[in-house]
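Session log. Operator J.P. requested a structure for one protein chain; no other inputs attached. Running the standard single-chain path with token output.
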Amino acid sequence: MEHAELPLVRRCFESELKNLERRMDRLEKALRATVESHPELARRFALLTAQPGIGLVTATTLLALLPELGQANRNQIAALAGLAPFNRDSGQKSGPRFTGPGRPRLRRALYLATLSAIRAPGDLADFYRRLRSAGKPAKLALIACARKLLCFLNTLLKSPAS
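Structure written below.
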């Protein structure tokens, strides 16, 4: 919008933005209706969205792309999401650890949720700051926080009291 100098172009952009916002609202309502129509999904959705950083899109992405959530152990769930570190060792060479295999759409959703969660006061933000003050790169600290968040959500859905 800041580059639209002509009034006609600005009106076209504003009209398109309003149209996109209406479509997004309809999609969000459809997502909520789908989740609420299944009692077990609605229960799991409520538990997920109660956590900082987890909103409608992240919760529905987790429920859709990670049905193992709440059933697998923490190492398995991190590997499925692509947040488990794997080594690059060969002989005497010890390379850096990397994450990557797994479900990329799920990893992206968790990455964005973690960005939001570390900005809210809480344990995850403290953990991120502790890693950064220890000299860890920002992206490494963020992925570590995403794994911690996912493991917490897995435990939350696993517990019988939930």
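Operator note: The CA atoms of residues 33 and 42 lie 10 Å apart.
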